[in-house]
Amino acid sequence: MQLSDNANTTLKKNVIGEFRLIWQAMGTLSIAADAAYLLTGVALFALGATPLSILLGVVFYLFIMNTGYQFSKYISSAGSYFTFAYKSLGKTAGVFQAWNMFFYSILGYASFGFLGLASFISLINPSLSSTWVWIAIAAAAAATAFLFTYFGIKVATDYQILGGLIEISVLIAGSMAIIISAGHANTIAVFTTKYIPGGISQLFYSMIYSVVLFFGTTLSITSLAEETKNSHVAVRKALISTVIVAGITLILVSYAFTIGYGPANMANFATAPDPGIMLFKKVSYILFILLIAVTINSFMGYNVSVSNANSRVYYSFAKSGILFLPKSLSKVHHKYGSPSISAIFVFGLSLVIALIFGLIFGPVTGGLVMLFANGYSAYTEHIVASIGLPFYAKKMKDFHLIQHLIFPVIAIGVLIAVMFFTLYPAPPSYPYNIAAYVGIAWIPISAIMTFVEMKMHPEKIEMYMQETAAQGAEA
């Protein structure tokens, strides 16, 4: 499909600032939804050391985030990690990065955003657990997120700011109430391996989720850089502010849930229906109702933020002529300034993938399986960018040993260790072993698809990628 000569393919400049970026990212982090859904995945492996796993997730993610933070000094592009890889390591690395991003961005969105929300609602009210009901919930979530993206980033971030502030307030109030009511049961032992029989290796199993809790932060912010005022400063400030606010809140929530449920009982927490919600109910029925409301809104906040980010990333892919995507996906809405055609594509593909996994495994397990699988490509994306960072810093004549080499090496080591320990000393049980195998298999598949694409139309890729890269602001 060809674009007309007057089709707009340039995103509007200077539309949003640092504050809106923070709440765009907080929407992606969706802390209340994490507490209701992903935290059970962490607890499944970390047990009574769940707060320790979350704390380490924050620390390790700061090393991982450093790569996007450093690149953002120089590059403002909707392509985010794709553009980072292309500008630092060349077009082949850029295409490989894009194929990895294709896998994890769609799986992460479809799993947590659509199946996660459907699972949460069905666990609250089992009468809503039939196949047709969760399909309707997933479809409604996808459609609503698409509409927010379609009508522009200001409308979407207005929603994120209001919902996010209420969400954080409810979580902090409820967590403090649980901690206070626990009295002498409070203990710092949950920040050690005392309550995790498998020790360090089992802790690393849990980190496939506790690190993933923060994934998407950098992408959700950097993908909006082209539309941000003073982006080289605002993006970096937003990254730090988001991780600090989200990290403190999630550590507090995970501690409250672990103490409230009992560190020795966290295996039951991991398999109980909406255990965090039930803890809130014990301390206050009002907080219980509020938490249900903000959690549903939190899932929708995630959907809106990720729809915003993914639509811009696929807009950039299409503009660069890669992944065999039609050029029409790079069209920008003349009135709302949104990548509207790309948003339609993301909406349709994500919903189909969610329905397939939900029908095979059920919405609860299907979502967690997809999240487990998508972690490997997400980690590979960060590894590729971290490898490129020192080369790009040298190119910009701004190389510093600690932030451009040591921190990326630490990030790469952490990501490889987490992937390694999901398979050693043994793979997880079914169906998460399937998720691990599929997730790992996508890495060589990305390499094969890169080889195929580079062989089929290298000149086209070179031309489009240079054109796209030139339009991204570079310091």
Give an overview of the whole structure:
There is one protein chain. With 475 residues, this protein is mainly α. The protein contains 18 helices and two strands. 75% of the residues lie in helices and 1% in strands. It has a two-stranded antiparallel sheet with strand order 1-2. The protein has one domain: Amino acid/polyamine transporter I (Up-down Bundle).
Which keywords apply here?
mainly alpha; globular; 18 helices; Amino acid/polyamine transporter I
Average pLDDT confidence is 89
The tally of structural domains comes to 1
CATH architecture: Up-down Bundle
Q: What's the total number of strands?
A: 2
Structural class, by secondary structure, is mainly alpha
What fraction strand? under 5%
**Main beta sheet: strand number and arrangement?**
2 strands, antiparallel
CATH top-level class = Mainly Alpha
Low-confidence stretches: none
Taken in chain order, the helices and strands follow as HHHEHHHHHHHHHHHHHHHE
What is the CATH third-level topology name?
Amino acid/polyamine transporter I
Shape: globular
Given the structure, what is the number of helices? 18
Record the strand order, biggest sheet. 1-2
Helix content: over 70%
> How far apart lie the N and C ends?
34 Å
